[in-house]
Amino acid sequence: MKPKTLDAIREHALADYPREACGLVVVKKGRERYIPCRNLATTASEHFILSPEDYAHADEQGQIVAVVHSHPDVAARPSEADRVACEASRLPWLIVSIVKGDDGAPVAGEVAEIEPCGYEAPLVGREFSHGILDCYTLVQDWYRREFGVELPHFDRPDNWWNTGGDLYMQNFAKAGCVPASKPMKRGDIILMAIRSRVANHAAVYLGDGLMLHHLYGRLSSRDVYGGMWAEKTMLIVRHKTQL
Predict the structure, then answer these.
(1) Of the listed 12, 71, 130, 213, which one is catalytic?
(2) pTM for this prediction
């Protein structure tokens, strides 16, 4: 990136600190330009959410060539969620670090760049980032890798289960699933209510009494299905391809 572009990125990141800043780099008629965008994320566990309206506006200004965001108070090293989202965007990503200087004032630090390279997050031990690496994306990834089935994406703001949403029950049929008959089969999707009145957590049944899931704020893991997990289960569904 040109020095002028990097200066604009750092300026925006400092202005939005301590929130994550995000924006886009566009090129029009051979000229590079940084366009600041709004971050619509409302909680710390959400990855930054770049405003769709701002993305559309930038697209009208020229060809989008890079996605930009800041890392407040941490290094510019890409997180697992950054790498996954970079792959989905099919664009290079720039990450600028904002740290506090000796006098306590925020300072724009290094700028790192990553590019799509085919990265896939591991199924076990992945970091949690709502909407990017959460329980539903784990189910999606498992189905894609094990069965070659693409489950649909559903927009889901963080904490939807406490704001009147019931996304799993409303959408499991749209995802091609029906209530499962007994006995449980490998690939069945277990819908649970974790500290919620509605189903807000999903797991994949692996067989032999094991499930794969990604609990809010933890690393994804394989666990024995039973006990508390069985008590929290509201519904078990099966994809139509596995009937």
Answers:
(1) 213
(2) 0.89
